[in-house]
Design the sequence.
């Protein structure tokens, strides 16, 4: 059995145990394997082990891999500049980091009309950290009003990267804020499909699942630490 297969089994066991503690069905939590900077061979190994969803932060690095792995589902989880939207719209199945009307509009207009709408999660700066990506919570309703009509994107929920903490109570409080915000938006705008929460990584997935995560984004615990000289192309 390969190291990556072993790692995937351990991560899935953590997810299952967290769901058990939270009285949740493990099938309601999906694992997004964060494969940024990882070589094609490692992704293929994970795919062979049953992992289908992969998250990429660096566009050019991702575009070099996507054509070689047709059976995978690709999620863009990096920063989005305007010059990236065409390739993201064409090559990815979902985006977790939309935070502006401009980006959403471009993704919709550049998505092939014959393709299914692009699944979009809105990134929220849940702790209002200076310099951090994401829209502020009180600006979220206005953004949703403006982008809901865009035909080639499907609003699916929220994503956040809360402030780092090793305190489980702090972790849960941050994730709870995002969860409550998602429920409020879903009710306010009557969006049945707005039911996804992308939150939780290797160090805090248990707290995220306890507060309702439907996607946990795991990289290091599956693929190992990034090499110091790993190429991070945008």
Sequence:
């Amino acid at each position: 059995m390969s190291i990556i297969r072993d790692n995937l089994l351990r991560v899935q066991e953590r997810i299952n145990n967290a769901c058990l503690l939270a009285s949740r069905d493990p099938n309601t939590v999906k694992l997004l394997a964060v494969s940024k900077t990882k070589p094609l061979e490692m992704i293929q190994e994970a795919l062979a082990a049953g992992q289908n969803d992969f998250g990429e932060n660096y566009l050019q690095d991702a575009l070099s891999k996507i054509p070689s792995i047709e059976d995978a589902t690709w999620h863009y989880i990096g920063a989005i500049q305007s010059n990236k939207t065409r390739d993201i719209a064409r090559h990815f199945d979902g985006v977790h980091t939309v935070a502006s009307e401009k980006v959403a509009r471009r993704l919709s207009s550049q998505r092939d009309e014959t393709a299914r709408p692009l699944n979009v999660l809105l990134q929220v700066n849940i702790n209002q950290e200076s310099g951090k990506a994401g829209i502020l919570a009180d600006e979220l309703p206005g953004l949703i009003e403006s982008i809901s009509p865009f035909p080639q994107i499907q609003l699916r929920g929220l994503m956040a990267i809360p402030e780092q903490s090793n305190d489980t109570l702090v972790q849960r409080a941050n994730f709870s804020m995002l969860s409550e915000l998602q429920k409020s938006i879903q009710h306010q705008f009557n969006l049945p499909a707005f039911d996804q929460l992308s939150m939780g990584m290797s160090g805090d997935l248990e707290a995220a699942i306890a507060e309702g995560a439907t996607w946990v984004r795991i990289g290091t615990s599956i693929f190992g630490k990034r090499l110091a000289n790993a190429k991070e192309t945008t």
About this structure: The first helix runs from residue 3 to 21. The first strand starts at residue 30 and ends at 34. The beta strands are 30-34, 53-56, 73-76, 94-98, 118-123, 153-159, 196-198, 215-218. The chain has one domain: 3-223.
